[in-house]
Amino acid sequence: MKTHYHVIIVGAGFAGLTAAETFAGQGLDILIIDENAQSGGQLLRKTRHRPSLLPRLEPDRMKSKGFALIESIKKRQGIDWITQAQVLGIFKERRLLVHVENHNTPGEKDAGKIREVQADHLILATGARERYLPFKGWTLPGVMSLGAAQILMKSHGVLPARNTLIAGTSPLMMVLAWEILGNRGRVAGLVDQNSMKKKLAFVPLVKDHWPKLVEGALYTARMILSGVPVHQGTRVIEARGENGFTSAIIAKTTPEGVIIPGTEKQCPADALAIGHGFVPNIELPVQAGCELEYHRDKGGWVVRINQKLESSVRSVYAVGEITGIAGAKKSFIQGRLVALSILSRLGKINLNSRTNDFHHGVETLVALNLEQEKYARFLNQLCQVPLSAYGTIPDETMICRCEEITMGTIRKNIHQGFDTMGSLKKATRCGMGRCQGRICGPVILDIITALTGKSPAQVGCTLSRVPVKNVGISAFLNP
Ligand SMILES: Cc1cc2nc3c(=O)[nH]c(=O)nc-3n(C[C@H](O)[C@H](O)[C@H](O)COP(=O)(O)OP(=O)(O)OC[C@H]3O[C@@H](n4cnc5c(N)ncnc54)[C@H](O)[C@@H]3O)c2cc1C
Q1: 144 and 200 both lie in a single domain
Q2: Atom 6 of ligand 1, nearest CA residue
Q3: Ligand 1, pocket-test mutation among 14, 38, 43, most atoms within 8 A of CB
Q4: Same structural domain for residues 216 and 234?
Q5: Is residue 357 over pLDDT 70?
Q6: Whose CA is nearest to atom 13 of ligand 1?
Q7: Which of 120, 179, 235, 372 is deepest in the core (most CB within 10 A)?
Q8: CATH code assigned at 229
Q9: Residue 441, exposed/middle/buried by CB under 10 A (0-12, 13-18, 19+)?
Q10: Is the ipTM here above 0.85?
């Protein structure tokens, strides 16, 4: 790894990879950094399990495009690509602190070390993670996020359990059910907080995105044919078990998310996979000093960008899920756009001449990007849990798992006036543990806004400090 690059891209998901491919052949030194061993971000995790019994379902062909991208970049000159390397912090003048767990360029001696590297232009494409709604028993072994269940299958080749209950509001629920069935697992049921009426209301709004509608229809048909019980307008309110999860208590809710008393039911299963949409990974942009803006319809706090996808910090760009949750297609489009924008700034291409291909390419991409963002707004609305659900979490429920802070403590402190992210953290230590608020941060923001009526801008967002990821002290001791 060199110490200076023309462009550094953090994140080898769809956004980062598309940007890298667009730079190829332009005579620039490019570095891509990703903490995962496999490239392709959340969508293209390597599949090590036995071939699925079901055909690969991808009417929009995004996965195929992603695998083709990876192959294309591998063949290109001038692109250094390190996997299993975490960016721990960003300092002034786009200097990055990188923990290299493994270096895949032969002859390099960086493995296990911390390295500093600087970019003329920095592209942040750090993606998203899942959003949680805590409930009694959610810390029991066997209760996991939808993404964790996917990773178990895709990266480790094991099913989450023999019989898995799937719940939440996320479109990933159907994807996971499809994958479990395709790998000879059983799905105990699908507990969907959205009612069928609410979902159908979205169909006319997204009618132009037929590949996604086809995908949804095929998933639904598969659930029906497999005899998977589907509970609509229903939520998990408790996970039960002695030493691990054995059953969930589910209950019907009103459209406002309020539990309807007397509708509780017990669902036995060996594991519970649950998720409520996604939140952008904004820790590195925060460190870089990028301004944020809050949009509930985009997944919460996102990086503010201009038309060139540049953040408020000069030459620091943000693309993909961190500018608003919208799926792989938008990440793909923004990756292309940001590279064209940087190439134009460097004088490598001319975007201003109306007669050249780049100009028309950019116009098309901008239009597609807007269209994709519009579609995503509806999807994010489907994933949203009504705020009242956060305000009514029972007192004994664990909120900050790392520091073991319960809802009762959080509620008491908010009522005493600690009603911003910063003050509540100082008063209770919530968000100060190993995950540094990545799991509880968005939950606490929703709890404060639900209990106080304050706006997210008044409540703030979780502070991000170096190192943003856990790293052993030995890495710092052996430079
Ligand atoms: C858990 C999960 C599962 C998903 N499963 C599906 C699915 O099955 N089907 C589907 O259509 N969509 C799925 N999605 C959505 C899909 O991943 C996104 O729409 C799309 O891939 C976003 O692309 P991206 O490039 O913006 O981000 P991502 O694909 O998330 O890529 C971001 C990359 O940045 C890297 N990164 C982040 N921080 C650092 C750091 N500090 N240092 C180094 N690297 C870093 C990550 O390792 C990751 O590879 C899933 C999303 C999540 C969060």
Answers
A1: yes
A2: 43
A3: 43
A4: yes
A5: no
A6: 43
A7: 235
A8: 3.50.50.60
A9: buried
A10: yes
